[in-house]
UniProtKB/TrEMBL annotation, chains A, B:
Residues 15-200 form the DSBA-like thioredoxin domain. This is 2-hydroxychromene-2-carboxylate isomerase. Its EC number is 5.99.1.4. It comes from the Bacteria. GO terms for molecular function: isomerase activity. It catalyses: 2-hydroxychromene-2-carboxylate = (3E)-4-(2-hydroxyphenyl)-2-oxobut-3-enoate. InterPro entries: DSBA-like_thioredoxin_dom, GST_Kappa/NadH, HCCAis_GSTk, NahD-like, Thioredoxin-like_sf.
Length: 210, 210
């Protein structure tokens, strides 16, 4: 992509990445986005949100991959192949979709800190490789500690009323933007749904004047 | 792909292509599959079926793109971008999804004849470019005539009781194979769902001994 100069990302070269740690296709994007975006000189705005309330507002009381047996069976086959293609490890979680409230609150808190990408990859791997309960304080704290971060302090801050409210507000913002699944990417007002559209969304950063 | 010799496709190098003319993502695959398969030395087995009964058996009384407003709005945006990417024309049909019973019966009849790919592209373009009623005898006959085929004779044969029954049986076969949407590809027992997986499915023809 010869239009990608070595310069730092300008405001025009940004992508919003909306994800939930329970979402299997979000896992693929969490593992891929930092490198793919960097290769194109695009900055990532990490936007953790709660997919559960979005599904419930649409009339689904669980993931479509659970509610639709046929699609659910297919999805794990597809995940195996996709992970092989990308060179990403996968163990089908024994609980799906996993609630990840605390992990998401921490991600929201860290969204603009330099550790966000590594933290998100670590949490995703705990869910989709090590099959651990990413909703627990134990797993979230371990993930933070592994990155050399003050886990106790961050977890306490993540559980403050202000931060809890922010996650609810971010989830409402997702709904009002028309988000119906995860991962979802925005480049300006342009929405892209699904890990399969990550490259298209990144390329779109350069496709139109903004 | 250096493993693709110039030889004719062997039985191992075949892909089943399950589609409905009303399905917008099937449109993309109908327009692309012949060239993509030929480039890899893969033969296409065309498998027209009725998506409506599949959706109804899964508990949906219409396309998910109609039932889910948010997803529906997104899908047409996505279609515009995908068509631009592939260089395929698109006019959003005024009726969606369009019933295409007769057109599918003709496709079933022609599935192993040399005109199947060109016929399917023609019908799809009548739906997704020219916004015409592909369920009508008029449009189906025109499509056949355009290919220099005896339209009246083919339409009569397509509407025989035997051929009508075959389409119902093919739709039941789709359900029993676990198909829940279109397009769907099979390489042996391996299922791939969606136009986004066409290349993966074709490449899979060479990925394992069969």
């Amino acid at each position: 992509m010869d239009h990608v100069a070595a310069s730092a990302a300008t405001p025009a070269h940004r992508i919003e990445f909306w994800f939930d740690f329970g979402s299997n296709y979000s896992y693929l994007s969490v593992m891929r986005i930092e490198a793919e975006a960097a290769a194109r000189g695009v900055s990532v705005d990490w936007r953790p949100f709660l997919l559960g309330p979005i599904f419930r507002a649409l009339g689904f009381d669980n993931s479509p991959f659970v509610l639709q047996k046929e699609k659910g069976a297919y999805v794990w086959k597809d995940m195996e192949r996709q992970c092989r293609k990308y060179g990403i490890a996968l163990t089908r979680p024994s609980v799906f979709p996993r609630a990840a409230l605390l992990a998401l609150r921490v991600a929201l808190l860290g969204a603009e800190r330099e550790w966000i990408a590594a933290y998100c990859r670590e949490i995703m791997q705990q869910n989709f490789v090590h099959d651990r309960d990413i909703g627990s304080i134990e797993v979230v704290s371990e993930a933070l500690a592994k990155l050399g971060l003050p886990a106790q302090q961050i977890v306490a801050e993540a559980q403050s009323d202000a931060n809890k409210l922010r996650l609810r507000e971010q989830t409402e913002a997702a709904a009002s933007k028309g988000i119906f699944g995860a991962p979802t990417f925005f480049v300006g007002d342009e929405m892209f749904w699904g890990n399969d559209r990550l490259e298209d969304a990144l390329d779109f950063c350069y496709s139109s004047p903004r």
